[in-house]
Amino acid sequence: MIIILDLNGTIATDGKLLPGVKERLEALKKIARIFLVSADTGGTLKEVATELGVEGVNIAVLKSINEAEAKLKVLEELRKNFPGKKFVAIGNGRNDELLLKNADLGICVIGDEGAWSGALISAKVVVKNIADAFELLLKEKRLTATVRI
Question: Are strands 87-91 and 2-6 parallel, antiparallel or unpaired?
Fold first, then answer.
């Protein structure tokens, strides 16, 4: 499994990591490869990615396209590099809408900053905070209960 995470509004508020993020990511790294994707407007992507031990992807380098399309391009490139893997995307903003829609599992986090309505509609699952999103992935029966038909 590959997890693509948005930074601000998803795992951090006002540039600060939310409680429990680091610990839950440690557990998730045992079962998944994790990429932190951001336009890095606050200049903290590299620092946060290093602190968490995950790979940071700065989409600001893709200046020719908007942020939503840049995040989608990251997903498409990762799919080429990791064929056969399932992709989980977690985000909350307008720039996460295409990513959430095109991942195998898109999870929209409402969180302290709220969520863009298009991200809510594009996601397959909506949760109230990042801890709930991580717990769905760590405790498979919770996710199964949510998505089964």
Answer: parallel
**At 43, which CATH number?**
3.40.50.1000
Cα dist. 118→13, 16, 70, 125 in Å? Answer: 20, 25, 17, 13
CB-based contacts of 103: which residues, under 8 Å, 6+ apart?
4, 75, 87, 88, 89
CA atoms within 13 A on the CB side of 101: 16
The per-residue pLDDT string of the chain (149 residues; one tens digit each, 9 = 90 and over) reads 999 999 988 999 887 899 999 999 999 999 999 999 998 877 889 999 999 999 999 998 776 689 999 999 999 999 999 999 999 999 999 999 999 999 999 999 998 889 999 999 999 999 999 999 999 999 988 877 787 75
Outline where DSSP puts E strands in the chain: 2-6, 12-13, 16-17, 33-38, 55-58, 87-91, 105-109, 125-127
- Residue 13 is part of which domain span? 2-147
pTM, two decimals, is 0.93
In whole angstroms, what is the distance from residue 44 CA to residue 122 CA?
Answer: 27
Number of domains in the chain: 1
